[in-house]
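Protocol step 4 of 6: structure prediction from sequence.
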Amino acid sequence: MLIQECLKKDRKMFNKKYFIIAFALLACIQLYVPAKMIYDQEDVLRTGNEFKFKAAPIDPNDPFRGKYITLRFGAARFKVQNIKDWVQGEEVFVLVENGETGFAKIAAVLKDKPGNDANFIKANIGYIDEVNSTLIINYPFDRFYMEESKAKPAEDIYRKSILDTTKIAYALVNVKDGEAVVKDVLIDGKSVADLVKEGENK
């Protein structure tokens, strides 16, 4: 009996230790994942190559969601020779370069990951225009997050600037190893956050 009681106690202690270890590992994993995401984004912003993505009109009926500006870009269409080789929704690698106007443009859309020295973005095909043999790219950076109290006026300023042909709206996007992070949204070279502040001080 004594031996059995000892074995039961040892089993309970073992189970308790196992539970504590498992809980600690789970907690570490839950902390690691968001920390790694934040670190990766900061690394792209710090060491990635910067491109200006010129803004394109967005659906005026698209509702404001509270914490971010919805972004659309002109450099999202790319004509290909064999349109039947592509599938809507598939992951692609978009090579980007600076055009003559200083804004980003698509140099190529690839099915296979290019070399590490290339400026490319992992994206997917949002739509296939078979009539014009054109791919419409869905970029992973279609939102610019801001403080909630600033996001609504910033969204209003951004939408108005897109409709105003005298203004140029664009996003500064840092690119590295297929990842892309929006650094800022600018209108005529001025940060939308600064424009919001100017509006508040009037």
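Step 5 (inspection) to follow. The chain has two domains: 1-47, 48-200.
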